[in-house]
Structures are given as C-alpha cells and as structure tokens.
C-alpha cells in the first residue's frame, strides 16, 4: 500500500468512527435530557456508599428496598430516593451508581457520592460511625474529573462535557440532627447560638458549592432543608408541647433556608457562566395530601431505622415517612416531581430543574 492510500484508509476509519460516535451521541441526547448527573448528599440520596463503612447509618437489609426493583441496596427507603426519581424523569435508563462501587464505564453518565449521616461539617454524624462528609464527597468528585480527563482526552472537551451535566446537592440536615441538637455528643450548641451556627454552616456550604463550580459544575440544584421538626424521630425524642412538630427544629430549617437562598443569588451573580437553583423542600412538604404524616411505616429499632425482623405497614403509599427520618417512595415521587416541575413560584428559585436542564450552558461555555 502506498503512503497516500494508507493515509486515505486511515482517514476513512477516523471518519467512520466519528459518524458512529456522533450518531450514538445524537441518540443519547434524544433519550436523555442531560448526558450526566452527579449527586452529593446525605441519607436522602445515599444509594449504597455507606454499605461497606463501619457505621450505624446503613440500611442494606430488608425491609429497606421492599418496593425496589433491586431489593435492599443501602437506600434509606422502601423504594426510590428523590434523586432516583429525578434521574428517571431526566430519561436515564439506569439509576446513577454509587461512587463506592462504580465501574470505570459508569463515570460518563454521572456518579452518586451521597452518604448517610454526612454533613457540611466534617465532624457531623461521627457519633454513628464512618461517613463521607461533603468535603470528602468533593474530593471523590475531583478523582472522577481526573479520570474523565483521561477518558475524554483533553481538558477543554472534559470541561464542556461537565458543563452539560446536572448536579444536585442536598446537605445540612445532619448538621442539626446529628450535631447541633445532640449536645451530649457535640459542643456546637454550647459554643454558638442557632443563628451563629447556621451562619457558619451556610458560609462553609457556600465555599463547598464554589469548589463544585471549580470542578466544572455549571447546572447545580441545591436542596433546602425539609421540616426537621416534623420527623417521627424529632416528635418522639423532643416532644411537641402542643404543636404539630418540634418548633425549634423547624426554626432551624427555616433559618438555614433563609440564609441559603441569598447564597444562591450571590453565586449566580459571581459565577455568571453557571446557574444555581434552590429547591424549597420545606414549603413543598406543606400541603401534601398524605394520610399519615407523623409516624413511620416500618417498625423502628432504637435509632429510628427499621427493625430488620419486622414487617412494614402494607399501605405504604399513604405514608410520608418510611422510618423515623426518611420519606417513602410515594412521598419522594411527590418531592421529585415538584422539584422538577414547580407548582408555584416558591417551590423552586429562581426556577425549577426542568428549566435548569434546558439551559444551553454548555454551548455558552464553549464560545
Ligand atoms: C421559633 O421562631 C419563632 C418565629 O421567629 C419565634 O417566635 C419562636 O420563639 C422560635 N421558637 C423557638 C423554640 O426557638
Ligand atoms: C394502613 O394499614 C394499617 C394496617 O392494616 C391500618 O391500621 C391503617 O388504618 C391503614 N392506614 C390508612 C391511612 O389507611
């Protein structure tokens, strides 16, 4: 074969490969609204990252997963978590796999770094054992980004790819439940007022969200705190003194959320090629129409997680809570649908996940 012929053959191969790749890419784009979804969070999003840690905050046993296709996986739920349902809505054919056990091939469509008992602060949740705090989740993501650069081949294409992904971050619940409101284990409530502690927490969170931006995130949904004072555990542990819920814990949620919303504004102002949105789980959980909203469906052991030996309630779609902390699959569907497609201006700010993923951020970034 002459030099020219060989070169032409090579060009043909390259062209054919390019056509296959672009066709594949085109198909993927039609099916899925984003090419990738990266998840940061606590037990509301954990899908198995804690299974091999030494911790009381793991649930890889029945009746967890009783309504899930894959049985008990480490999800703190009878079925799907909020982020599972968001992934379904976005058109992913598989749930986003946990970082702990992910394969090299999984990286391109995103990973889930969430860990039960984890917090914004590193010490949060330590009374339960090992966990992966948000700082460590971000370092794990940094490892993922390095691998992506190797797979994709160059920094610029990787940056463009990462800018098209959806990112969701839901943190802060444990910094209250498994830190500030446990004075027997943590000094935080002796050292700080609720306002001071919340200020520190939100400042640190803001830095962490900036770090996520530094690793290439451009479409970021931040989940606010739900009504921490309305979990069956809070009601049972602290009492409600005539209210429906534990007032001081709901105050903590509201305080945190009211500080977080301006942070979202400021990040959008400072980082103009990114978009952050805030999801108001507190408000969304208000009028939910569920029959039972103050007791969990399964019979819990001490610590508020389901007892492995006991059967759960049969009518799980009527319950908000699965165990003493975590929502049922049915309630997660309600939360995920309102996050994706807001029913009113307060659900999502400045707009919902549907609008976030439709932004042409990647194209803007490549100019
Ligand atoms: C909760 O917040 C309300 C409104 O700001 C306040 O009046 C009340 O004293 C707070 N309650 C507790 C227990 O902190
Ligand atoms: C759910 O099932 C339990 C057990 O059968 C029953 O006692 C309860 O009333 C049911 N709850 C609702 C809201 O229907």
UniProtKB/TrEMBL annotation:
Domain of life, per lineage: Eukaryota
UniProt keyword annotations, A-Z: Hydrolase, Lipid degradation, Lipid metabolism, Secreted, Signal
GO cellular component terms given for this protein: extracellular region
Compartment(s) of residence: Secreted
UniProt keyword Signal, yes or no: yes
Pfam families (alphabetical): Lipase_GDSL (PF00657)
InterPro entries (alphabetical): GDSL (IPR001087), GDSL_esterase/lipase (IPR051238), SGNH_hydro_sf (IPR036514), SGNH_plant_lipase-like (IPR035669)
Main localization, broad class: secreted
Signal peptide: 1-29
Molecular function terms from GO: hydrolase activity, acting on ester bonds
One BP annotation, GO: lipid catabolic process
Entry similarity comment: Belongs to the 'GDSL' lipolytic enzyme family.
UniProt-recorded name of the protein: GDSL-LIKE LIPASE/ACYLHYDROLASE-RELATED
């Amino acid at each position: 074969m002459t030099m020219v012929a060989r070169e032409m053959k090579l060009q043909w191969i390259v062209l054919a490969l390019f056509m296959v790749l672009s066709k594949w890419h085109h198909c993927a784009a039609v099916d899925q609204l984003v090419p990738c979804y990266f998840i940061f969070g606590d037990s509301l999003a954990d899908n198995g990252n804690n299974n091999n840690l030494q911790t009381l905050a793991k649930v890889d046993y029945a009746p967890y997963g009783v309504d899930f296709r894959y049985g008990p996986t480490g999800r703190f739920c009878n079925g799907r978590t909020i982020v599972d349902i968001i992934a379904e809505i976005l058109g992913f054919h598989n749930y986003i796999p946990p970082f702990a056990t992910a394969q090299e091939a999984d990286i391109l469509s995103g990973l889930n770094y969430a860990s039960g008992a984890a917090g914004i602060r590193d010490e949060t949740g330590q009374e339960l054992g090992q966990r992966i705090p948000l700082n460590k989740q971000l370092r794990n993501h940094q490892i993922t980004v390095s691998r992506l650069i190797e797979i994709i081949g160059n920094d610029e294409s990787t940056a463009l790819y990462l800018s098209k992904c959806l990112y969701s971050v839901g943190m802060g619940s444990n910094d209250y439940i498994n830190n500030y409101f446990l004075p027997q284990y943590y000094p935080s409530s002796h050292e700080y007022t609720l306002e001071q502690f919340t200020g520190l927490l939100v400042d640190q969170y803001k830095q962490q969200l900036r770090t996520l931006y530094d690793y290439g995130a451009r479409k970021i949904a931040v989940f606010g705190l739900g009504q921490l004072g309305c979990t069956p555990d809070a009601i049972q542990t602290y009492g409600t003194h005539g209210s429906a819920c534990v007032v001081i814990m709901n105050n903590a949620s509201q305080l945190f959320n009211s500080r977080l919303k301006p942070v979202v504004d400021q990040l959008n102002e400072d980082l103009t090629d990114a978009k952050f949105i805030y999801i108001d789980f507190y408000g969304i959980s208000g009028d939910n129409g569920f029959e039972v909203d103050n007791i969990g469906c399964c019979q819990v052991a001490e610590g508020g997680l389901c007892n492995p030996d006991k059967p759960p309630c049969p009518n799980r779609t009527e319950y908000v809570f699965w165990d003493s902390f975590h929502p049922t699959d049915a309630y997660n569907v309600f939360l995920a649908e309102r996050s994706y497609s807001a029913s009113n201006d307060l659900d999502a700010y400045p707009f919902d996940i549907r609008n976030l993923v439709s932004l042409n951020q990647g194209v803007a970034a490549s100019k």
